[in-house]
Amino acid sequence: MKSARLVVTLPPVLRGAEALRFATDARSLGADMLEVRTDLHPADAVDAAALARILELLVSERGVPLPPAWVAAARWVDRDVVHASALDAPAGKLLASHHADRPLKTDEALRLWEGPLPEGALVKHVEPLGEPSAARIAELLETQRRLGERFGAERVTVLTMGPIALPVRAVLSRRNLLEYVAIGGDWKAAPGQRLLLDAAREARAPAREGRLGILGTSIAHSRSPRIHPQPFDRIDLAEDAPVEALVDALLPHYRGFAITSPFKPRLARHTGASIDAINTLVRRGDHWESFNTDTEGARAVLERLGGGDLFVLGDGGVGAALRAAASERDHLRFLRRASISEPLKGTGLWTWPDRIAPPETLRLEGARVAVIAYGAPARRIATEITRRGGVPLLLGAAWFIAQARRQRALWETAT
Q1: Per the domain annotation, does 312 fall within a domain?
Q2: How many angstroms separate the CA atoms of 186 and 201, rounded?
Q3: Euclidean distance between CA atoms 309 and 331, whole angstroms
Q4: 214 vs 153, 218, 232, 331, 332, CA distance in Å?
Q5: Of 162, 184, 204, which residue is a domain's last?
Q6: Domain holding 82: CATH number?
Q7: Is residue 84 over pLDDT 70?
Q8: Is the domain of 178 the same as that of 323?
Q9: What's the rounded Cα separation, in Å, for the pair 369 and 377?
Q10: Which range has highest mean pLDDT (3-7, 79-83, 338-342)?
Q11: How do strand 280-284 and strand 287-291 relate by DSSP bridges?
Q12: Rounded to 10 degrees, what is the CA torsion of 102, 103, 107, 111?
């Protein structure tokens, strides 16, 4: 199956030379097309012809009429079938779009597209996701299928939006002409967009049935999408997201998930696990089976530290893995934030996520402290350990590789 063409949207703060650099960077990262929208940029802020020499240009009319120079430079011209004054565009350039304000049944969605379209026009249909369920995802896929029957599958894009829409957009992308993605950072053109790098990685990989993904909060740094088989989705959710309903809704489409903070305890309870926290889900027919491969990571780190008497900063999901991995000669002293008052000596492990500030009372008198995060979060934690008088030991890679190797083996057994 041919991959969707990857579209990035020009952020509203970029003008002139900065816009050209953005387009060049996006192309180098795997983007196929650049979108410029009239609600984000005034006509004189964009050199459409110069941008089109770098990437194919998609110009979108959003409340403000499209400048003629933009239309002349564009490969595609997006006009909303409800709000545009007319569905006019140069021959072969029209992308007709509809943005519904609520989730629709397939028959409702198709009625929006009963009117005639110019020959060769593309079709883009967008709906909010609403509450996640297997039935809701099936409805969107059916809308996509039937629009493809009406207009030709090679001309259709169906998108959904919302704070938990990313994995559903990923499922839809397998049969879409276009996939709108984010370049990274704080700004996205729409909620639910995947990162360009993640989508480009999938596009380069051999097609495979059943997706994988990582579920967590603040996981832009995660290396899982880079080392695991594709397609692998980075699903970054708010702490209060309905993650239980989401994983159940995605069961027909994903063969496994990596679970990270803060969802390890919640999904352990949801799946009836015998342990307090899990980090891996594997599809078993009509249900999820849960595991904690962090035990493998914990064992690797404890071996590096030499075992013995160790303090552990925090007692969350990682604590369960450390307890399971500890041998008879290991003595682990778990310290919650409120219980830390005296300076700490010896050797320990820092298990608090990077986004959680340590207590002000924490002091380390030359203590060696293992950091089990990696990348930028690990560097920030290491700086904090040094500031408080400790010696950081960066063991996140050892933990990550050991647990990820076991995850991969488990996902290969999915049914």
Answers
A1: yes
A2: 21
A3: 5
A4: 30, 11, 8, 32, 29
A5: 204
A6: 3.20.20.70
A7: no
A8: no
A9: 15
A10: 3-7
A11: antiparallel
A12: 30
State whether 199 and 306 are in the same domain: no
Q: At what angle do helices 317-325 and 294-305 cross, to 10 degrees?
A: 60
Among all chains, which residue has been given the structure tokens 């307090």? 276
Give helix 396-411 / helix 294-305 axis angle, nearest 10°.
150
Among residues 148, 111, 143, 151, the alpha carbon closest in space to that of 127 is found at: 143
Amino acid residing at 383: T
Name the nearest CA neighbour of 260 among 297, 218, 212, 215.
215
Rounded to whole angstroms, the Cα distance separating 370 from 350 reads: 6
Residue-wise pLDDT tens digits, 245-272: 999 999 999 999 999 989 999 999 999 9
Q: What one-character-per-residue DSSP string does 347-372 give?
A: EEEE-S-TTSPPPTT--BSS-EEEE-
Phi-psi sector, 405: left (phi>0), alpha (psi -120 to 50), beta: alpha
Burial class (CB in 10 A: 0-12, 13-18, 19+), 154: exposed
The torsion angles phi and psi of 79, rounded to 5 degrees, stand at: -130, 135
Q: 0.70 exceeded by the pTM?
A: yes
| Token pair 């949207």: residue | 9
Read off the amino acid at residue 114: E
- Tokens for 173, please give them: 């992308």
For residue 79, the enclosing domain spans: 5-204
CATH code of residue 350: 3.40.50.720
Q: How many CA atoms lie within 13 A of 162 on its CB side?
A: 19
